Amino acid sequence: MSTVRIPPVLRDSVNGQRQVDASGATVSDALDDLFDRFPDLRLRVTEDGELSRFINVYVNDRDVRYRDGLATALGADDTIILLPAMAGGA
Amino acid sequence: MNPTQQPVTVREATIDQALEIAANREILDVREESEWNDGHIPGATLVPLGDVATKIRDTFPDLATPILVHCAVGARSGRAARTMAAMGYTNVVSLRGALPEWRAKGGAWQAPSAGLLTEAQMRRYARQTLIPEIGQKGQRKLLDAKVLLIGTGALGSPSALYLAASGVGTIGLVDDDVVEESNLQRQVLHGADRIGMRKVDSAEQTIAGLNPETVVIKHAERLNAENVDRLIAGYDVIVDGTDNFDTRYVLNDAAIKLRKPVVHGSIYRWDGQITTFIPFEGPCYRCMYPTQPPDELAPACSVAGVLGVLPGIVGLLQSNEVFKLILGVGDTLAGRLLMFDAMGTHFDEVKVWRDPSCPACGVESPFADAVPAGQAVAAGASVS
Q1: B99-118 burial, b if ≥16 CB within 10 A, otherwise e?
Q2: Cβ of A88 under 8 Å from any chain B Cβ?
Q3: CA-to-CA distance for B153 and B230, rounded, in angstroms?
Q4: Cβ–Cβ of A90/B243 closer than 8 Å?
Q5: pLDDT at position B382 over 50
């Protein structure tokens, strides 16, 4: 079971939780598990079945773009961080 | 007396002996700062006698460090050495002899640092120049530095206050807004008596009260693709406290073109992000966020709200980055994104990699032609 950190802008799609558990052998599997339980999240961060480009995905502190993408394998204690850009400053 | 109630004896060295062993030891100067300012042994560390008991463990954590301790003639250094021996230091030698003799016999000597700081500056920045990594030379770097704050609102406020207070010599302010009542909950540069005033004027007034020596350059305009090169060209470090993606991308590209480090901060309700972009050495904003989210996933503070203290915390972490960039010390956040969750009082950090396909700083960068040899982009290169 992995932990998925939910960014503040997406928390209303997961009942306000800051992190949720997800199961799966890869990032893709874990996200599918998450999206099955929180369908609104799927609508907001995927396009045509693919994860939107504006969402960065990290496993622990590593960007999956520089690992195996969504096929990156997960260990039991891994943490997935979903991170859309933030721009506020004023 | 030490814990075993045995008299503590320390080794002493004459000037001649000290001259022989000095090169292989840390030099500890236990005089007062004013005496240090009149000249000191180069490479020595200043810890006035009164501070030895409380600070020496931070300065020399290893009790076996070979240390030569000196003062003006040998009395204070003897006391310091006994204190240190009682604390468990095993290799402390006290110099028993007068510093003029040290100099007369050819001992290394750093003349008074006249010209680095004025008397008033030495008084004002005394707590900062005591820090070994800063000293008078570092303070001089800060005084000579030019830092541009993009935005004098939530994130710009703490940076402006602390950078000015601690002696950054020139602070540029870019903001075309006026102070509104709803700003005051977090934009601490401004006050209730400034509502309706231009933010750059209000900021100038506050900074002048904190540190009249700070040179404030006001740019009462909104940063855009047309003016960005002109605005940032004369500065050493840029602090990005803007409030929208368009401005951040415009700033990013110009900063890469002109080789300006950018300290990035962003905030949303209870969450903040901080990182540092150093062109062609680390990743840039586009490497980190190649695509901006739709508006509904990236609302501005004016729509989403923001905790009052959050920009204070994030803004000061930005200022901390500015200090290290100017001083050339420590590890910056280049290649790392620090995320702060105020609700859980929790920091997370992820690595940010240079993206070879980045349109701004990647292999096809339109700004790369002036990059010195050896700094070309390597695939997936990161500074961390």
Answers
A1: beebeeeebeeeeebeebbe
A2: yes
A3: 21
A4: yes
A5: no
Which structure tokens are listed for B308? 């009052």
Distance (Å, rounded) from C-alpha B239 to C-alpha B244? 14
Sign, Cα dihedral of B232, B236, B241, B245? positive
Q: Which residue has the higher pLDDT, B201 or B101?
A: B201
CB atoms under 10 Å from CB of A6, counted, come to 22
pLDDT > 90? residue B251: yes
- Tokens representing residue B20 in the block: 């022989």
Query: Are the Cβ atoms of B297 and A44 closer than 8 angstroms?
Result: yes
Question: Does position A19 have pLDDT exceeding 80, yes or no?
Answer: yes
CB contact under 8 A, A86 and B298: yes
As separate numbers, helices (DSSP H) first and strands (DSSP E) second, chain B gives 15, 13
Angstrom CA distances, B39 to B5, B17, B134, B136, B329, stand at 38, 21, 17, 12, 24
Give the tokens for residue B330.
Answer: 């420590």
Q: What is the ipTM of this complex?
A: 0.92
pLDDT digits (tens, 9 = 90+) for A46-59: 888 888 888 999 99
Residues of B taking part in catalysis: 301
What is the rounded distance in angstroms from the CA atom of residue B355 to the CA atom of residue B361?
8
Name the band, by pLDDT with cuts 50, 70 and 90, for residue B300: confident
**DSSP conformation letters of B30-93:** -S-HHHHHT-B-TT-EE--HHHHHHHHHHH---TT--EEEE-SSSHHHHHHHHHHHHHT--SEE
pLDDT at residue number B33: 84
- Chain B residue numbers with beta carbons less than 8 Å from the beta carbon of A9 are 268, 293, 297-299, 304
Please check whether residue A58 touches B, CB under 8 A. Answer: yes
Q: Bin B63: left if φ > 0, else alpha if -120 < ψ < 50, else beta.
A: alpha
pTM exceeding 0.80: no
Q: How many CA atoms lie within 13 A of A61 on its CB side?
A: 13
A89's tokens: 């400053």
Question: What is the mean pLDDT of the segment spanning B257-282?
Answer: 95
